[in-house]
Write a structure and sequence with these properties.
Elements lengths: L2 E5 L2 E4 L4 E8 L4 E10 L6 E6 L5 E3 L7 E6 L4 E6 L8 E10 L6 E5 L3 E6 L1
Parallel strand pairs: 2-11
Antiparallel strand pairs: 1-3, 3-8, 4-5, 4-9, 5-6, 7-8, 9-10, 9-11
């Protein structure tokens, strides 16, 4: 069974840093894009940062210059380094990946269970 397992969430004061990690496990032929989404209290889920297999990156406007996404293809892992955290960054952060199982039916979008990030002022 393919899973995305997140780690690294927690509570931090404003201005602090956290590093989230997500590892894909299971029988996967390849991973296309990987990314992080978040859903804050009373808000819709939004894209935070996405990195393609070719290394192209997109960031949500409010995190540019503060967050850095990276991936280790050999370990099927994506990381999100979050610096200068603000209370508005408080959310459940979800890992997302477009997976090719190599079975001929295209890409399957898969989500992790989420990890909570709480930033206090």
């Amino acid at each position: 069974q393919v899973q995305l397992v997140e780690s690294g969430g927690g509570a931090v004061q404003a201005g602090g840093s956290l590093r989230l990690s997500c590892q894909a496990s299971g029988s996967i032929a390849s991973i296309k894009s990987m990314g992080w989404y978040r859903q804050g209290p009373g808000k819709q889920r939004e894209s935070v940062a996405v990195i393609t297999s070719g290394g192209s990156i997109n960031y949500e406007e409010s995190v540019k210059g503060r967050f850095t996404i990276s991936r280790d293809n050999a370990k099927s892992t994506v990381h999100l380094q979050m610096n200068s955290l603000k209370p508005d960054d408080t959310a459940v952060y979800y890992c997302n990946a477009d997976l090719d199982y190599g079975l001929g039916f295209g890409l399957v979008t898969t989500w992790g269970k989420g990890t909570l990030v709480t930033v206090s002022s």
